[in-house]
Amino acid sequence: MPHLAHITLLVRDYDEALAFYIGKLGFTLVEDTPIPGQDKRWVTIRPAHAPDAAATILLARAATPEQAEAIGNQAGGRVFLFLSTDDFDRDHARFSQAGVEWVRPPAVHDYGKVAVFRDLYGNLWDLIEHRR
Q1: From CA 35, how far away is CA 118, in angstroms rounded?
Q2: pLDDT in tens, 20-39
Q3: What is the pTM of this model?
């Protein structure tokens, strides 16, 4: 059965991206393997406590000017990724303490509680706790 395995996120630098996603957001490093002869690495991460079968984010260092131009704007200014949580208040407070930049404050909607943050490159993310 087909399933989503990875989603590519363009980055300027592997290590600065890892510092943000692991250091600030608490993601887990799944793999960091050098690719000899290509001057790149296969770097995958996923949110902490996500199931092993969950799709990972592939941190891909931009290799062309066109790719570099897309860093931070992969969704054309719309929210790009949605980070689901079982405790919005806990994670919002933790991210805030880590220095995450919020672009829309917490709001309660019919579907749940959500706030929008910007990653280190400018991509917009929803932190969302869906209503049960």
Answers
A1: 29
A2: 999 999 999 999 999 999 98
A3: 0.93
57-103 pLDDT, tens per residue?
999 999 999 999 999 999 999 999 999 999 999 999 999 999 999 99
Q: How far apart are CA 76 and CA 74, in angstroms?
A: 6
Residue type present at position 6: H
SS3 state at 45: strand
Please provide the size of the chain in residues: 132
Measured CA to CA, the distance from residue 30 to residue 126 in angstroms comes to: 22
Q: Which residue has the tokens 């399933």?
A: 3
CA angle (114 as vertex; 108, 49 as ends), nearest 5? 130
